[in-house]
Design a protein that fits this description.
Layout: E1 15-19, E2 30-33, H1 44-47, E3 51-52, H2 60-66, H3 73-83, H4 87-101, E4 105-109, H5 118-126
Parallel strand pairs: 1-4, 2-3, 2-4
Amino acid sequence: MSEKKGSAQSSTPTVRVRRIYDEVQKADGTRVLVDRVWPRGVSKDKAELDEWIKDVAPSTELRKWYSHDPEKFDEFARRFRKELDEAEAAEALDSLRDLAKKGTLTLLTAAKRDDISQATVLAEILNGGKQTSGKQTNSKQTSSKQTSGKKKTSSSSNDGKDGQ
């Protein structure tokens, strides 16, 4: 996948968030899955991943509590940031930082709404703290589906079981 890597080194990382189910784009740069569980219905070949960094994902307990409820996102983000201070998660986050320094980094998630996922929290951290969580963001940070101006609501009882 080295042909997709950004060639210019930048002091400000470009970290994007996309769903793993979205079509691969050249602009993705380095593609990293940041879910703890492999996403349903996606073959490893089709995913075209550069890495899968499970240790940067939220704990199973936090993920189940959150269940992608938009009302809980701010508290989820706070708790998740605290989990990222733990040794294993901090080391995994450092790996993402190293990848971001090399060029465009796309964090992939199976979440139905990537704008309220752990990938968005990670992108905020890696992009120098720019606030993007819980809001629709521009296409540099989320998939084009999220920028259409239509927010999806999560009324499905399957929200917490979509590979997160």
